[in-house]
Design a protein that fits this description.
Helix content: 40-55%
Number of strands: 13
Shape: globular
CATH class: Mainly Alpha
Oligomer: single chain
Order of helices and strands: EHHEEHEHHHEHHHHHHHHEEEEHHEEEE
CATH superfamily: Cytochrome P450
Structural class: alpha+beta
CATH architecture: Orthogonal Bundle
Length: 447
Amino acid sequence: MPRAYSSLPKPREIPWIGSVHRRFRSPLNFFVELRREFGDAARFRIFNERFLLLNDPAAVGEVLVTKQDSFRKGRALEGARLFLGDSLLVSEGPEHTRQRRLIQPAFHRGRIAGYAQVMAEKAAAWRDARQAGEEIDAAQEMNHLTLDVVGETLFGSQVGGQAQEIAAALSEIVENFGRMLLPFWKLMRHLPTPRNRRLAQAQRRLDGIILNLIAQRRAENRDRGDLLSMLLAAEDAEHPEKRLTDREIRDQALTLFLAGHETTANALAWTWHVLAQHEPARQRMKKELDEVLGDGRLPGLEDMPRLRYTTAVLSEAMRLFPPVWVVGRRAVEDVTIGGIAVPRRTIVIMSQYVIHRDARFWPEAERFLPERWLTDAPERPKFAYFPFGGGGRVCIGESFAWAEGVLMLAVMARRWRLEPVAGHPVEFNPTVTLRPKRGLRMIVRDA
């Protein structure tokens, strides 16, 4: 007999509004405290919405894989539809399957091998533009760098001159994802507040840039072999009703600009941060880079199997600082998950940040230990580590992100190390991704 949802433990809540204050004041601490106090399952409420926090990897696997048809995207991405349209990130059912099939060829291994060259060259340009003693915001630098990579590899466009403008506009949207969890979000966004005006302006800027890019490519009328070419060519499909309009292409482009650079940028930024605190690990990685790339050449996709420790460093950084720190799914029907009867419309929350730091699956869970990825891993549940999600909605660009993270880190870290600026506070800003709240002020030093 499944355990009733109403019998699950819950925190003390304020009448009518529930846990809204704790959830939005400090979401990481809120979920960590629920796990510490109540174990693998706890319920809470935000206004009239029911939530279920799951901390058991087996139950996470049920939601994301074996019973995924009983769920759809959570509340934040429901709100994101206002900005991203019916794109891959927010679409559901057969439409999601159709879009994924359309976009998947852009991420086949053969294409990623070509992208790898661009990734390494962009990283080398960044490396060569740095000077010892220079102070930078590593988070901002990685954001602009990965945006430039996505612009060229997926859209055949040199966005370098617009990278700062695009990044600022995308950041404005990302910073509003948390507000989309609120029940009155769709009404609140119409209020003439400064924040809403900035958000509307950001959307207009992005629309202008992306629609202009689409218009240029239509006028050019040639296949560059990138994602944008695939989306444009899809208009010649056998079924006219399935042709992509400019708006549909804009939705996909905006989504992939956002998802394609935001996660890797945060992964790289937090990797710089954690390496600065663990000099032996940085030196071991540098030794590997010198051995594998001894002639000074840029790495390619074929080098990744030999960059084992570099990959382990990135893997461990994403364990402690997962770029996507939480996943939500709304039940579309009554369903049993982990022996719990989950009522229809309940939003199930699964936090990578919480599970990745669970000592049951990760000995010395709070320590940065890249070596744990080099030995025969102990038997741990599959979803004890899921930085890119799982199931039918696993990140379509997972292999792209791994290549980008490892190869760009290899190029940059062989020449430079980054030293934290003394006194600069490092705090989490958990929006849809795990960002550093005030950036990461760091000083460039010789490696």
